[in-house]
Design a protein that fits this description.
This protein is α/β, with parallel strands linked by helices. The protein has 32 helices and 47 strands.
Length: 1228
């Protein structure tokens, strides 16, 4: 009985440690002592401490959860760990698969620390981390480990297995046994790791166990499943023996081949290695699964005879395994590697790499890169991919020292059909050749394509989900399935992207989107798009047009935008409603899109997801596919120039169908420009009121949107769907082809040659603008004619263009800096510096504040009133304001962000970015009103007050007045210490929810995380309530921040400009935990000393974006009476403006190489602390207190200490410097 009580208490104690691990004083921040085991909480704490200390070379993620809900942590160690890099092989170590085998768990933590602490000083470790993508999972069975007992050498089944009594190394699919080995849901650890293995396509792996000392290689079982003694050869048996021996010969005990384990002291293994099945049969093991299905060569290493030795043995075990672990990892670079590419230089993911005489193939990864481990020798190697002609290279020589580079370029069987020169841009792309805007007679009518889907039926949501997942699995080389959000009832909004290298941003490929099922009762659009998905995938590589379209276009297909409505409709129930939400609101998703960029009060989650999706992609064309009409529709209100384009595309799509031409009466259907070449029996679907998705897209994005109707019925019988498909599928294919009849090009900086992102492309005579992509590319559909095109960016130029009917124009635009005379620009800069100095004087800022036009807009606002105010502000001051949505709260209220700057359309890299935030806690009601007043004062004084005008012109100010609008609606005026509204509608304190790597953050938190992660902010101020002081990072208990001096300085600036805060006596004598006699010297305090908690927004801002954030507690009362707002504004206004001054100070510069080219992602260290990274233009900006500082610049590929400024003296104003970085060849 007592043992059960103790077990329960120990479990509870472990859970409490997990919850509070961040707030405890972490021993784990220090160096390893090698004398203790980490339980789950300790392991979590230790891994996060690595991320905090070495964020530039490591990251932590969970690949899933155990049966009892513990995270399956994976530490990624590599240079640039935040992104996937082509040409870098992926290596994996997995430990503690059996919970009672504990040595591996600790050894992998030690290995992680070894790699991190020696990076940059140990050449071997530095080379390994730079060239390898290393993934380390210390514990695959954290539940089992919690049940294991230290000192138990033989282990127990309860600890060996997971919490549902499954041996995880018997739970993987087996090559000789087709039946599932475990019940679904009994081994979530296996499911998670399988998904991880299949997604990452590791090259080499080690699985660490305990109970003996030997290296065991595939296969682990045989077809006979005889218990032991059967040698089960793999096709790479010699290679596996070599890999196993690599580890064994570097382990002092393993290499002897005599473990001398107490349970079998006479057991021996020649050279310390064994074939798995010859030792003992293991069906369902991870090792064989990795090799046969995961693209990965894996060996199992048994590290010690005792499964869970006393902690005093850990240091010895680490020394025994350290060299073996490192040497084995280095073998990931042996054999042959390279890329499989198209003739245009685009990588082919999923291509097969085969070696003559070996029937085990591997496949390329997402970039088309591959890594085929081979022993030294001479080989004939073949690359092949569906739709391409295979290519074989004979007599490839492989040496032992390093991998042989071998690239393949594959040609398509239809490549001879492509016209040379099309899409011949400097950006690599796959060629596509349209000849005219419509198919010729041969191509349009018949012959039929090789494959038409036959099993056509209506799909429920679950049927559709399974169908898309199966297509994504079968055609993984050209598909990417993702979700853009969820419906009101929580169903995923699935999108299938079809293209070579799907899921990867690909310069040179235009993007197009199809959306179906906007009405729940409209099955035609949904089913036609599902058929289109299967049609494109099934005919790729065999049908010429489909192959060319997929090779040259990124096609995104959203079959169902309204899955909730669809589930309410039954087959044959034509023209029913089916658009109802679970909230019983009849909402038609096809219209009522927001009429302005700032949106409407309530945006349905489906609409919000689609709007965000379209805005974040560079879609050239979009189409809603539906029933209830036959024809093509485009927006009513478009410029005449664009109407020509809309008509041309619409006609090109429907003229191709001879049947349609015979059925239509062209003259009778053209009176309305909203309906082109279409007819239908129900004109109710030709909406004349409200704004549909196409109109919204035309006004607010770079997309031209159409509606394509393919049936008079909304929900036809399933047997009729194939008829509709065969009759009209050519319309959809032709629509895809139209995306290539565009003026396209690239906007570049003429000095650096780099593409300019988000440059605005303006065609004279049209209000519809498009923007350049990340690589500077753009596509602009135009009808034949002559045009003037302007790239709107610093140094904008006008380019005359003539578009021919059958030829696509390539118009590349080079921009140089604005023609500002050097002396004039220098003078302006000096004047601004003088302005900052004057404002920083004793009374300079106060005089400015008192001279400003007052806002006088102070009162408490509801969510609706706040939204209206922001919208009116942007309408009144459109030249300097932009209002946009960061996301939505639990109750679907918009989280607004207001941007104020003098350079809305052409952001400058040298302008600092400032963030003001309030309303994280809804009951802190003062902050939102102060920020709205602050925004209003900035706007009404812009243009009239020269100082405010210069500050706004030289800054980019982002104001988020209320992060928690749901909580704010619940708070009550006059309630100084009420907790009503403190949390969001889901009961979560948002300032504890900013946890990196968490998969379950609140929607409000996610919105702010996305804003913070986008980077570029130099300073952030968060307004709270309940006291009178400023706190600076960190809120959690940890070692002081590297730049604590700067953080303190910023807090002092705010408190010092407040009328009373700097005295340090809040005087908050009412409320829980208040003490009227408490003193905060200078009115500032480190966050953890005031309110110790983890998951705060300021800590997240520091950790993720290196942006300093201070929290301002505006007063003792959380929600004072409205008549107090004016006095609070007077107290805080100077401080708010002081922060705007500070963001324009500090140290900034440009990092360049000796050729004058900007160096991106350089690490700027001040006084030995990592503070900031340079952006894509080499620009950096960091805030510093006045004084003398040392500056160092580090960048990969350059000498480690690039430049050192021993004396950087910063006064009250800013100091700008230009730093040159000289390339240096590092010794390997």
């Amino acid at each position: 009985m007592m043992s059960n009580v103790w077990f329960t208490l120990s479990r509870l104690f472990a859970i409490l440690h997990v919850v509070h691990y961040v707030t405890c004083t972490p021993e784990s921040d220090s160096e390893e002592t090698y004398n203790k085991y980490y339980n789950y909480a300790g392991l979590t704490r230790r891994l996060w401490s690595f991320v905090e200390k070495y964020p530039h070379i490591c990251s932590l993620e969970s690949v899933g959860k155990s049966a009892e809900g513990r995270e399956l942590w994976v530490m990624r160690v590599t240079a640039h760990s935040e992104r996937n890099e082509p040409g870098k092989p992926r290596f994996r170590y997995v430990g503690n698969m059996h919970g009672d085998e504990a040595v591996s768990r600790q050894v992998l933590v030690y290995l992680t620390e070894y790699l991190l602490t020696r990076y940059g000083t140990d050449p071997r470790v530095t080379e390994l981390v730079n060239s390898t993508d290393i993934y380390i999972m210390p514990s695959m069975n954290p539940d089992g480990f919690e049940k294991a007992t230290e000192g138990d050498c033989t282990g127990s089944s309860a600890a060996r297995q997971n919490a549902k009594h499954v041996d995880l190394n018997r739970g993987f699919p087996d090559q000789f046994d087709q039946l599932p080995r475990v019940l679904e849901g009994d081994a979530p650890e296996v499911t998670a790791v399988m998904s991880w293995i299949l997604h990452k396509k590791f090259v080499l792996s080690g699985n660490l166990h305990g109970g003996s000392v030997v290296a065991s290689y595939p296969f682990d079982d045989s077809s006979s499943h005889i218990a032991s003694g059967v040698y089960s050869h793999s096709p790479d048996d010699a290679l596996f023996r070599y890999l196993a021996q690599t580890y064994a010969e570097n382990h002092p005990i393993m290499k002897e081949g005599r473990p001398r384990c107490p349970y079998d002291p006479d057991e021996g293994f020649k050279d310390g290695i064994t074939n798995g099945a010859a030792w003992y049969d293991v069906p369902g093991g991870m090792q064989d699964f990795s090799y046969l299905q995961g693209n990965c060569f894996e060996v199992t290493f048994e590290l010690s005879c005792c499964k869970y030795p006393f902690a005093s043995e850990l240091h010895t075990e680490w020394k025994n395994n350290r060299e073996a672990l490192l040497t084995y990892m280095e073998k990931v670079h042996m054999g042959v590697n390279g890329y499989v590419m198209t003739s245009a230089g685009i990588g082919l993911p999923g291509a097969n790499i085969s070696v003559a005489g070996n029937n085990h193939n591997i496949t390329t990864w997402i970039f088309g890169d591959y890594f085929r481990l081979l022993l030294p020798g001479t080989y004939n190697i073949t690359a092949s991919s569906s739709g391409y002609l295979p290519k074989t290279v004979n007599n490839v020589t492989v040496t032992e020292d390093k991998a042989t580079l071998l690239n393949f370029i594959l040609n398509t069987s239809s490549e001879k059909m492509q016209m040379p020169g099309f899409l011949a841009s400097p950006v690599p792309s796959t060629a596509f050749t349209p000849t005219v805007r419509i198919f010729d007679n041969q191509g349009a009518s018949t012959p039929e394509p090789l494959v038409h889907p036959q099993d056509i039926r209506h799909h429920s949501y679950l049927d559709m989900e399974l169908f898309l997942q199966q297509i994504n699995t079968v055609h993984s080389s050209i598909t990417h399935l993702y979700s853009i959000g969820q419906s009101a009832q929580g169903r995923e909004l699935y999108v299938m992207e079809i293209s070579t290298n799907a899921g990867i941003d690909q310069p040179g490929k235009p993007e197009i989107v199809f959306v179906g099922n906007l009405h729940g009762s409209d099955a035609v659009g949904k089913e036609m798009l599902l058929i289109l998905v299967e049609y494109l995938c099934s005919n790729y590589g065999s049908e010429a047009l489909v192959t060319r379209l997929v090779n040259s276009t990124r096609v995104h297909i959203l079959p169902s935008m309204n899955p909730d409505g669809y589930e309410m409709v039954f087959e044959g129930k034509i023209n029913s409603g089916g658009v109802r939400y679970s909230s019983n609101q009849n909402t038609d998703l096809s219209k009522n899109f927001p009429d302005q960029s700032y949106g409407e009060d309530f945006v349905q989650p489906e609409k919000a997801a689609v709007m965000s999706w379209i805005k974040t992609h560079s879609f050239v064309l979009s189409a809603s596919v539906l029933g209830g009409m036959i024809g093509v529709k485009y927006p009513n209100s478009v410029d005449s120039l664009d109407e020509d384009v809309f008509k041309l595309i619409a006609e090109a799509c429907f003229v191709v169908s001879v049947k349609l031409v015979l059925l239509m009466s062209f003259q009778s259907i053209r009176p309305s420009s909203a309906l082109v070449l279409g007819f239908g029996s129900r004109n109710t679907h030709f909406y004349s009121s409200g704004i549909d998705m196409q109109t919204w897209a035309y006004r607010n994005t770079g997309t031209l949107g159409f509606t394509i109707g393919l049936s008079c019925d909304l929900y036809p019988q399933a047997k009729d769907l194939l008829t509709y498909w065969k009759r009209y599928h050519v319309v959809l294919l032709q629509f895809i082809q139209q995306v290539h009849f565009s003026v396209r090009g690239r906007v570049t900086d003429v000095q650096s040659g780099q593409g300019i992102v988000n440059s605005t492309i303006v065609v004279e005579g049209s209000r519809h603008h498009v923007h350049t992509s990340k690589s500077g590319q753009y596509w602009r559909p135009l009808a034949p004619g002559a045009y003037k095109i302007q790239a709107f960016a610093p140094g904008a130029v006008v380019v005359p263009v003539r578009v021919l009917e059958t030829q696509v124009e390539q118009v590349d635009i080079g921009l140089s800096p604005e023609p500002l005379a050097h002396s004039e620009g220098q003078l302006e800069g000096e004047e601004f510096q003088k302005l900052l100095e004057d404002l920083s004087s004793t009374s300079g800022l106060e005089q400015l504040v008192q001279s400003l036009l007052p806002g006088g807009m102070l009162h408490y606002r509801t969510y609706r009133e706040r939204s209206d105010f922001l919208q009116e502000l942007t309408l009144t001051f459109p030249q300097i304001t932009r209002l946009y949505s960061l996301g939505h709260s639990w109750e679907f209220r918009t989280i607004w962000a207001l941007e104020i700057t003098g350079n809305l359309e052409s952001p400058q890299p040298t302008e600092p970015k400032m963030r003001y935030v309030a309303g994280v806690h809804g009951n802190a009601a003062v902050g939102p009103e102060l920020l709205l007043e602050f925004a209003f004062v900035l706007c009404i004084n812009y243009g009239g007050n020269p100082t405010i005008t210069k500050l706004v012109d030289r800054s980019r100010i982002v104001i988020v007045p209320c992060v928690n609008p749901d909580g704010r609606e619940l708070a009550q005026e006059g309630k100084c210490f009420s907790t009503a509204g403190l949390t969001n509608a889901h009961g979560v304190d948002l300032d504890t929810d900013f946890l990196s790597g968490s998969l379950s953050v609140q929607p409000e938190t996610r919105a702010m995380m996305d804003l913070i992660r986008e980077g570029g902010f130099s300073l952030s101020v968060n307004l709270e309530g309940g006291s009178l002081l400023v706190t600076y990072p960190y809120d959690r208990t940890t070692q002081p921040a590297h730049n604590e001096e700067t953080l303190k300085y910023l807090a002092v600036v705010y408190a010092g400009n407040h009328l009373g805060m700097h005295f340090g006596y809040p005087g908050c004598h009412i409320g829980p935990g208040r003490n009227e006699n408490i003193q905060f010297p200078g009115g500032i305090l480190r966050g953890a000393e005031f309110s110790n908690h983890s998951g705060s927004m300021k800590d997240y801002s520091m950790d993720v974006s290196l942006c300093p954030e201070i929290t301002v507690y505006t007063g003792c009362c959380l929600y004072p009476p409205a008549e107090q707002l004016l006095s609070l504004w007077v107290e805080h206004r100077t401080s708010l403006f002081a922060m705007l001054l500070e963001v324009n100070k500090g140290l900034s510069g440009v990092v360049r190489d000796k050729e004058g080219q900007p160096v991106s992602d350089a690490v700027v260290r001040v006084n030995g602390s990592v503070l900031v990274h340079s952006d894509t233009q080499g620009y950096f900006h960091t805030l510093l207190p006045p004084g003398t500082h040392q500056l160092e610049i580090h960048a990969q590929g350059f000498q480690q200490q690039l430049w050192k400024v021993d004396q950087v003296v910063l006064a009250a104003a800013s100091k700008r410097t230009r730093v040159k970085c000289y390339e240096h060849q590092l010794d390997k």
